[in-house]
# Entry
Amino acid sequence: LRLTLNGELQEDAPNDPLGDLFGSTYPTLSLREIQTAIQGAKENPNIDGIYIEAQTLLGATPAMIRDIRESLADFKKSGKYIIAYGDNYTQGAYYICSIADSIILNPQGQVNWCGMASQPIFYKDLLEKIGIKMQVFKVGSYKSAVEPFTATRMSDANREQVTSYLNDIWQTMLTDVSRSRSIKKDLLNEYADSMLTFRPAEELVRNGMVDSLCYIDGISRMLRAKTGKDKGALPLVSVKELAAATEATPKKGDKIAVYYAYGDIVDRKTEWSENVIDAETVCRDLRTLREDESVKAVVLRVNSGGGSAYASEQIWHEVKLLREAKPVVVSMGGMAASGGYYISCPADAIVADKMTLTGSIGVFGMILDTREALKNKLGITIDGVQSNASSSFLATEPLTPIQRSMIMRGVDRVYTTFTNNVAEGRNLPIEKVLDIAGGRVWLGQDALEIGLIDTYGGLKTAIALAVDKAELGDNYRVVEVKEEPTGFAAIIASLNVSVREAFARSELGLMMKEYNAVREALSQQGVLMYSPYKVELR
# Structure
């Protein structure tokens, strides 16, 4: 199996027929396909081992990367080998490859090993310069999603929670790499402090970070020796090919449905929406799963920082109804926070990785006031008449004290509903929930201790738990439920995404990520259950 770590890692990459046909300069990797292929490689007698080709891995959360690493650790129980090669290892790619039997580096290559950092972007001064005022209402001292609009630096509470979970993530990585590479954690920390990225490749061999150096042709000879293939093309199978072959294997028994919910939570999807949890669609799908008697249990795979409070509430209600009909187990991905946690809390059980970001039980509201910008920057003024005191609410007039009070009361009401539903779903005293809420983000390993989740693990663990709760024994089959266009619709959708990405990237280049962050931040208006944290390993 050839596992190429190049591109943006997503929970499940969209159907991209144009990319498959012509190739893509910015490919997307599917976590679901990677894990399926690794499992297939373990069970398939025709697969001798796994060759990992480490290139540029982007957008990968610590929990998603750890999911891949844990799948590879399970694969090694088969006695088959894993060989990793890279010209330049990103930190995330190196963490995955550290489980390999042999890590090989190009003689002129690099290993990025530098630790964790968080650097939020603040827009307060920018908004003031262009005359935009952000009217903010929030509950929870740790609910820092509004800070970029109201401050120029991190609050003490936010600095505390970010420091806590970043250090915990780093300690988990240090522990895992230390065990796999037989390097003491203190030494790994010293390497991170000493800018290991710029050290000669020979030094990386001496300190044990890699095993040997060679060019790509040397890897070809090594794999030929391993497979006994002296001539002709190397017998390599791709992740997509092996995942498809593994999924195509006929299965019998009662159904365990895996339903994917990843992205921001929105009231309804628009033609420009990508990777969102559309409440209308999700509620309809969960209703269908509830009424389908052939489905004996449901695993809800959640990877979301939340979004619309109204949409989160609608999905929460459907998950609760689903649980009354059959077992529901939530499998958390890289993040299931704020609204992502809200839709998870009614489940029978919640499974998360030690490095999953979760919690963030808090609510906020944001309303843009653009009157000054329109007048002073564009020369646009607004006038009008109204029949009642609040007829022009959110139109031309600034918020009155009474309107501010009413909005804050609404935000408080949503927060009370949120905490009460968590208390009911998790069977916790409301006092305990209020103590761990306040918008604080928790790492999976801490979430277990305070009762926000039930156990550690990935999707495989969640499926096993659902099987157990449904009392199916060995007589079951897993079916995945995900909506994506097919045929001509898939080609049009693929073209739509590709064209927009190409235009944006041609102008923004490496600033594409920052552009998306600003665009996403300014789109967050209304009453929200949203957590802005996106920890990535590069």
Summary: The two ends are 23 Å apart (CA to CA). Residues 156-181 form the longest helix (26 residues).
